[in-house]
Amino acid sequence: MPKVKLTDLVLRDAHQSLFATRMVTADMLPIADKLDKIGFWALEAWGGATFDSCIRFLNEDPWERLRKLKTALPGTPIMMLLRGQNLLGYRHYADDMVDKFVEASAKNGVGVFRIFDACNDPRNLQRAAQAAKKTGKHVQMAISYATTPYHTKEVYADLAKKYAEFGADSICIKDMSGLLKPYETYELVKAIKAKTDIPIEIHSHATTGLSVATLVKGAEAGAEILDTVISSLAMGTSHSPTETIVESFRGTEYDTGLDTVKLLEIAAYFRDVRKKYAKFESSFLGADTRILVSQVPGGMLSNLENQLKEQGASDKIDAVLKEIAAVQKDCGYIPLVTPTSQIVGTQSVFNVLFGRYAKITAETADLVTGRYGATPAEVNPDLRKKALEQMKYTDALTCRPADKIPNEFDKIAEEAKKAGANTDEDVLTYAMFPKVAPEFFKNRSKGPVDSGSFAVKPPAPAPAAAAPAPVPAAPSNQPAKYVINVNGTDYNVVVQPAGSIAFAPAPAAAPSPAPASAAPAPAGGTVIPAPVAGTLVKYAVNEGEQVSSGTTIIIIESMKMELEIKSTAAGKVHFLVPTGTQVASQQPIAEIG
User: Fold this and answer.
1) Rounded distance, CA 24 to CA 8, Å?
2) N or C: the chain end with fewer CB closer than 10 Å?
3) How far apart are CA 323 and CA 295, in angstroms?
């Protein structure tokens, strides 16, 4: 039995970190047999953002992916990343939902549950750990690592002891951002070993360039398992190369016993697969030491870049990375891992675009008022006060958040069946992403997308210009709205009365007609534009209702977070686009008059 064992992350965290979680199952299965025969301790292949990506982008059933991978990997346990009481969604779930999800995951193929909580709040982990223990599978509880004035090796060691008392079979030091330094890792592993004797696994992203040395020092301190990625999907925002670690320990007491020649065959396969996903690649491919300050996780970087592109703000990445450190501190030095990384990242984007906390997402408000659990340190009191006022909460929560959530599986099952769910797994899919799942259920029969369709194609020759249809002139005091086609792509163009122009990609599909109840646009009204690109989720008031300036009138989902859109004037509200519509930044969505 080798002293050091390896878990390879090529089927989950590698592509989540490097190309926004877009790898399809069809690109995993051909190499599964070779992966299975290497002798890895486990293969991380499910959970994290893969579930969301499957139904949101790939038209894949994530449960079917799990079943196919289990069949193709009979000799190697499949590890999943589970967010404690959050499961795989972006909110806390009732205990009955946690039990059902964990049971279904084990039944469909998960062999190792890596369970973490973004707040490192043990109360948010205990139920998931108990549910996983009941399945008889390996339960690994993770410490979300951060470097802040609050976090010390003694704090982490006490946390590991608590997890061992919960029945954890192993402990993971989960370093999402590459912040673990080699000698600090040595001391941290020793501190944990002094308080518990269960195995320790180290998970450290390569983003800052520290990870190879960190894994070596962790092994020297007594860590039994290390996370690596096959070399062709390693480094950058991903992880240390598997072959590099294997060869580093070759002939030593830490020799993994793995065959480098066979590993190189796998690396060659993924080298070709990676080319298909070039359009999603993160530009952070080397060592980025800015992350030592911003602490952005590897998986978040590529998604953050894509989100900024959607907002037409790619040039703001450095400002956002700087802002993240300030927001993290205001949020009680919260570790940055899903969902807190997404919450803090999105809030930082909004702060850069609109001013610090001028627009607070609903998720940020919930985070700083205890709805996600206890934060490691005290939250900025001014931010908490503003969040309480925005959400109309009487006070911050101090109990376990799930204590306030009644059992919900049966209720959600009824909703899910109306939305097209056919199985208990479908119900769980709906529970995780109720806004995305119905569309997936509707289109599932079409089958998964072909990764070949991701290839960047040269632009088609421009078609002969067609004479534009005459467009009725807009009143002089109203914005004129046009859709202009350039080389086959539609763009929304809004010309304001003063002559300024807002120019943004139009939705992929033609916008749905306005609700039948919508009144004619009022003359001389105030236009309310979408501040960011996203989906108009719901109206917060009724069509034609009299509202005051500052009243929330619309909820937009942008970057997976909900943002309240407020009226900037008093008057009757007239909605210009229906719910469910994809809107571009600065697209008019309502008028007040």
Assistant:
1) 17
2) N
3) 11
pLDDT reported for residue 290: 72
Reduce the secondary structure of 201-265 to three states and give it as a string.
EEEEECCCCCHHHHHHHHHHHCCCEEEEECHHHCCCCCECEHHHHHHHHCCCCCCCCCCHHHHHH
Its pTM stands at: 0.78
Under DSSP, is residue 367 helix (H, G, I), strand (E, B) or coil? helix
Higher pLDDT, 177 or 497: 177
Q: Which amino acid is at 153?
A: K
Section 434-454 average pLDDT: 94
- Position 363, amino acid: E
- Give residue 483's pLDDT: 46
Confidence category of residue 479, pLDDT binned at 50, 70, 90: low
Amino acid at 54: C
C-alpha 450, offset from chain centre: 22
Contact 448, 24 (CB under 8 A): yes
Q: Sheet containing 571-575: which strands, arranged edge to edge?
A: 526-529, 588-592, 571-575, 546-547
Element holding 115 (H helix, E strand)? strand 110-115
Query: Residue 125 pLDDT more than 80?
Result: yes
Q: CA–CA separation, 372 vs 464, rounded Å? A: 55
Per the omega criterion (within 30 degrees of 0), is the bond before 401 cis?
no
Query: Do you know the residue count of the chain?
Result: 593
Rounded CA gap, 185 and 218, in Å?
Answer: 6
In one letter, which amino acid is 334?
I
- Residues 557 and 562: their CA atoms lie apart, in Å, by 4
524, with CB counted inside 10 A (0-12, 13-18, 19+), is exposed
Return the structure tokens found at 255.
């020799």
CB 287 within 8 A of CB 560: no
Residue type at 165 in one-letter notation:
E
379-415 burial, b at 16+ Cβ within 10 Å, e below that, comes to bbeebbebbbebeebeeebeebbbeebeeebeebbee
Structure tokens belonging to residue 227: 């996370």
From residue 60, alpha-carbon distances to 111, 455, 535 in Å are: 21, 19, 21
| C-alpha–C-alpha distance, residues 538 and 555, integer Å | 5
d(CA 306, CA 291): 18
Using an 8 Å Cβ cutoff, are 151 and 179 in contact?
A: no
Cα 371 from chain centroid (whole Å): 18
Q: Where do we find the tokens 């202009």?
A: 484
Q: Across 80-84, 297-301, 459-463, which has the greatest mean pLDDT?
A: 80-84
Q: What is the pLDDT of residue 593?
A: 83
Residue-wise pLDDT for 329-382, tens only, equals 999 999 887 778 888 988 998 899 889 999 999 899 999 999 999 998 999 999
| Main-chain phi, psi angles of 130, to 5 degrees | -65, -40
DSSP string of 404-450? G----HHHHHHHHHHTT--SHHHHHHHHH-TTTHHHHHHHGGG-PPP
